[in-house]
Amino acid sequence: FEAGADLAQALVLRRDGMGVVGRRNGLEAAFGAQFLLGADGPSSVIGRSIGLANQRFYVSLQYEVGIKKAEAWLAYYLTEELPGIAWFVPCGNTARIGVGLRRTHARHLKYWLNHFMARLVSDGHIYEGVLGATGGLLPVNGPLEKMQAEGVLLAGDAGGLSEPFCGGGVALAVMSGECAGGLISKAHETKLADVVAEYDDVVQIHLPHVPSFGLDDPEHMIDRLVCMAEWLPSEQLDI
């Protein structure tokens, strides 16, 4: 806000040129801009408006729970019993535990998460009881072949930039947004269209490889974890 940003909380209905039409409390309004960054989630309205959309999804459910002692490790689970993936991510005095399943198993999400939670309680890692819950779609097609068109850029889940092991899209959304901001800041030096066209290459260089995810290939998890470990110590983005 100090830099001049305006916040308008509304449901994005459609793209209208270099702007969007949103609805709030039954009222519609149009917002225009010099460039448009679509960061509106897995089923991005902005992405669909330029013919760029995620095609493959898993569904997820996650609990925040109390943790019995601070942990410095996180774990991903892929077993024959579970028709999907599960994760344990400690966050200080709490932990986020969740499961991701194919959409055909969506109705079983709560069952499998409760089953997973009971296992962690039995092992002495967490307290019984749920402090909060979140869930939604996880794009698992990997990054879109293109994340920009017609002067519009896509960030985070909208561009397929989501960590399919645990639905972790926040960091990738922030980093892809930083890539977009770095490019747009150069718009005074050259044509905006030329700057935006560089976005795909910049994202590929600065973000960790986010592959499409196959539950039928357990070795894929090992390869992905190695990739993440190699990338995590990298320096701050320099665009």
SS-derived structural category: alpha+beta
Rg over alpha carbons = 20 Å
Helix count equals 6
N-to-C series of helices and strands: EEEEHEEEEHEEEHHHH
Report on the structure:
- The structure is a single chain.
- By secondary structure, this protein is an alpha+beta fold.
- The protein is 26% helix and 26% strand.
- The chain has helices spanning 45-49, 109-122, 170-184, 192-197, 199-206, 218-231; strands at residues 11-15, 19-24, 27-32, 36-38, 57-66, 75-77, 84-91, 94-102, 132-139, 148-149, 152-154.
- The strands form 3 sheets. It has a 5-stranded antiparallel β-sheet, covered by helices on one side. A 3-stranded antiparallel β-sheet has the order 1-2-3.
- The longest helix is centred in the C-terminal third of the chain and has 15 residues, at 170-184.
- It starts with 10 loop residues before the first strand and ends in an 8-residue tail after the last helix.
- 32% of the residues are buried.
Features:
single chain, about 240 residues, alpha+beta, 5-stranded antiparallel beta sheet, about 25% helix, elongated, disordered C terminus
Q: Gist?
A:
By secondary structure, the protein is an alpha+beta fold. It has six helices and eleven strands.
Summarize the helices and strands and which ones pair or pack.
Blueprint: E1 11-15, E2 19-24, E3 27-32, E4 36-38, H1 45-49, E5 57-66, E6 75-77, E7 84-91, E8 94-102, H2 109-122, E9 132-139, E10 148-149, E11 152-154, H3 170-184, H4 192-197, H5 199-206, H6 218-231
